[in-house]
Amino acid sequence: MPKRWIAHLDMDAFYASVELLRYPELRSQAVVVGGRRAHQPEVLPDGSRRFALLRDYAGRGVVTTATYEARAFGVHSALGLMKAAALAPQAILLPADFDEYRKYSRLFKAAVAEMAPLIEDRGIDEIYIDLTEVAGAQDTSPGNPRVGINAIARAIKARVHEATGLTCSIGVTPNKLLAKLCSELEKPDGLTVLTHADIPARIWPLPARRINGIGPKAAARLEAIGIRSIGDLAAADRLRLTDEFGANYAAWLTDAAHGRDNRPVVTHREAKSLSRETTFERDLHPREDRETLGAIFTRLCEQVAADLDRKGYAAKTIGVKLRFDDFSISTRELTLAAHTQDAKIIRQYAGQCLKKQPLQRRIRLLGVRTGNLCRADAVPRASQPESGFASQLILPLSNP
Amino acid sequence: MTLIKISRDELLKPLQAVSGIIERRHTLPILSNVLLIRQAKQISLVATDIEIEITASAQTEAAGEEKSITVGARKLLDILRALPEGSEISLTLQEKRLQLKSAKSRFNLQTLPAEDFPRLAVPDDESSKLSVPQKLLKTMINLVQYAMAQQDIRYYLNGMLMVLDGASLTLVATDGHRLGYIRRELAGDSSPRKEVILPRKTIIELSKLLADTDEPVFVDISANQARFNFGGISLISKLVDGKFPDYTRVIPQDQPKHLRLKRQEILSCLQRAAILTSDKFRGVRWVLSNGSLKIICTNTEQEEAQEELDVDYKGDTLDVGFNVGYLLDVLNNLTVDEIDCGLGDANSSALITVPEKSDFKYVVMPMRI
Q1: What is the pTM assigned to this prediction?
Q2: What span, in angstroms and rounded, lies between the C-alpha atoms of A206 and A200?
């Protein structure tokens, strides 16, 4: 059996790095991505650009990414922008441009796929790669048993940089769990190759919450019984863990602490649903802000339709999600007679969903979701939606 | 132990016949296997998807010990196809592996026990029997099968109605937009009336497997399954448990407008016009007036196609739309030179028949364009 080599590749400060490609003058400055369109840099008459500063921000957006320079001030993803401004008032604020990030996401994934086809997509900026069967991965030399895998990982990093101009960090280990931990170890632009033998030295000193699957709540409970590091967890009495967390989770915790994980790299996952949602800059009133809401609603439907088209799906269920000013959430959905990718049809049914919602409160968030997906080329012909102005008449078959 | 020694081609033929029903992805791994049954001088191959089971056999010269085993059908098929034509192969069981050898090629394949292979039980209730020349059944199926629904929630439409009555056999298929009907008298004894719905997949498989010969296919219909035996192949299918709608009510009577068309001529016109249709919208307009039938197709890009045929028609003008796919289906599958077309108004169905014959009917509902 060849030695299993699984890589976790994580792009470094992805959104911020993509922005820096556009605005190279911001390199080595604290930059935060998370603003609105209003924070678009202004081009001055002399051709230079004036950027928005974090200290001038007023609103309730959150940080989507911060450069490593901004992280030095304690700014991190998901932090409220106002709070971030208190930590790093001089940091530069840029609006998020998800279309651009998706473009770079496709570029780096395509670059990796040229070298190693077994890729599990874990989101816009991270992937797992099964390198076990990649030519050369098993090569060893007398002085360095990992010479082959090291070379491949370096080559992937170089290819990603060549394709995108961006750096990434890679962890290569015998499984996904360790790989995910290792890609963090030498960020940014890191490369860490570990085997089980390295676990005591490299993994056990890390805090237990770094394991993907131990969240804040579990970490707090572990801490309460004196377990802080992954090493503590590996040494912990199994019965004690079972008492605290139940047999299943305790078994998983012990396995995780010892770096045991057999999950395969899942190269293909059919999407179950596709959705788009947006939080408004101020809460909108269903009646008074009807026009604004309507325009946003139509745009969301068009975006979802474009997503369906790009990913090659057609949807049969259309749903709407609302979050009100008291943070309560309400969703409604409808199932169509036939699959569709058509923005107009999606808008029409999403509109019907909206009519079924209680609309007394102001709305904070609006989302359009499509589910019950089917590959667009596999939609049965009989259920192709007829276009708006034509309709097929049906035979008067008696209902048996 | 040696399971069989046989030529590649002898084994490939029955394997190809049975493997068409194997689903690519299935929750039960054994369903992607083919069951090999060695009995005396023959080897039988069985495939199933739990709804349908197909058995086909190959003969050998030497008699062998009785033995059954299952092995991945796809892999076996791919290996046999890739081996040179006319080569000799041997299948040998070695513990839990099946070894396939041919000249200097050797494959060790995983197996699953034959006992785990799900078989369709043969019912012991009364059955209706008939025998039809394979060619006739194949022709009949092909004349109506394209009208079957696929994945319709009215599950009883995802198949074909088969009616045995007296000495006649009738097949009907409909997807709710169009309906195909074919009836033929059979030689032989008359039998009591029997109506069953055969699943879509069974029909498609039969249409592939039946040969263009006068050799018979023996059909055996019991309460919940149908068996077809022909040319060394046995196909057992569950029946669709449901009631087929009353098709006689949707076949129009006494239509006011009639025209006779040359099949190839109208087919060519429609094929040309269809170039401008899109997957989403396949509508074409028929504009019928004294002596002329115009076929007009426009699409969302404002392109237009127009074809005109001289026809022996006198009467009111009619402007009616159809899904061109539904018309091409019937015209492509008929083999006659001329067809009769009965029309009503823009909201009523069209009836396509064969001149001087009443055994084929195709009803298609118009489209509002």
Answers
A1: 0.53
A2: 10
